[in-house]
Amino acid sequence: MNESPLKVDTDKGFALHGSLYLKSNAPSDAVIILCHGLRGTRYAQPVRYIAENLKYHVVTFDFQGNGESGGSTAIGNLYDEVENLRCIISYVRSTLNREIFICGHSKGAAVVLLYASIYNDVPLVINISARYDYPNPDYVKKVFPDKLEKLEKDGFFVWEGGSNDYIVRKEDLETRSKVDMSCVKNIIKEKVRVLTVHGSKDEICSIDGAYTYDKLIGPEPHHKLIVIEDADHVFRKQQDELLKAVESWLFENQSWYLAK
Q1: Which of 2, 24, 54, 150 is the most buried (most CB within 10 A)?
Q2: Mean pLDDT of all residues in the chain?
Q3: Model pLDDT, residue 162
Q4: 193, 164 contact by CB (below 8 A)
């Protein structure tokens, strides 16, 4: 496996940085683009584990304002990240001239689903632990109960920890609350197939969302839902099961996208 750096200029005045993993004896020439979650980078788990161990060729990258990429980020900027992904897809298509599939974890999974619902130009889409209920009014109370007073008083608070402190603004939360994931019903079944993998004990994004995606995108073969028992949000003890689920589904659907 060779990891090569990528740098992709955007039309927003900053560059996105990523990595290309070329695998020996890959079962296809296709490239899988992996998208990380909130406050993550391309080296966050489980994205890094999949990138390094999946038999297929892989591209990972840092969304704007994360990792090595330029620009700024926010808790509700999913549509900015959709355009980041579109930029990476365009670059990989023009430089490698290969079929592309997309896969994301957590916020990155919501991004790949939003991308698919808008553009419908990537045949295989993988959703790992995506949230569904972005408009949930109880989100801030549940996740940041000790920050409510500061949010009301100052209009923002600092989310400490992780690789860097993260500023959460009231307007960003309002933008986030307007994200409507029911748009996945706009995914064209004849053009796109979707896999959802979710842990039964996901403590961050409710598994109820996985069942909702199954109803909106399904039935098989248009959408397949795999629930991994006892797995948490990052599949801490079940990364091998996650990898197997992703790899098996990709292999099963090769003949479909080749015949399109």
Answers
A1: 54
A2: 95
A3: 65
A4: no
Domain 2-133+180-259 CATH (choose: 3.40.630.30, 3.30.1330.60, 3.30.70.260, 3.40.50.1820): 3.40.50.1820
Report CA 129 to chain centroid distance, whole Å.
9
The answer to whether the pTM exceeds 0.90 is: yes
pLDDT of residue 163: 64
Q: Which residue has the tokens 């940085």?
A: 17
User: How many C-beta neighbours within 10 Å does residue 111 have?
Assistant: 28
Rg, the chain, Cα only: 18
Q: Tell me the average confidence (pLDDT) per consecutive run of 10 residues in the chain, 260 residues long.
A: 91 97 94 96 96 97 96 96 98 93 98 98 98 93 92 93 82 96 97 98 97 97 98 98 98 85
Identify the residue whose tokens are 């890959």.
Answer: 26
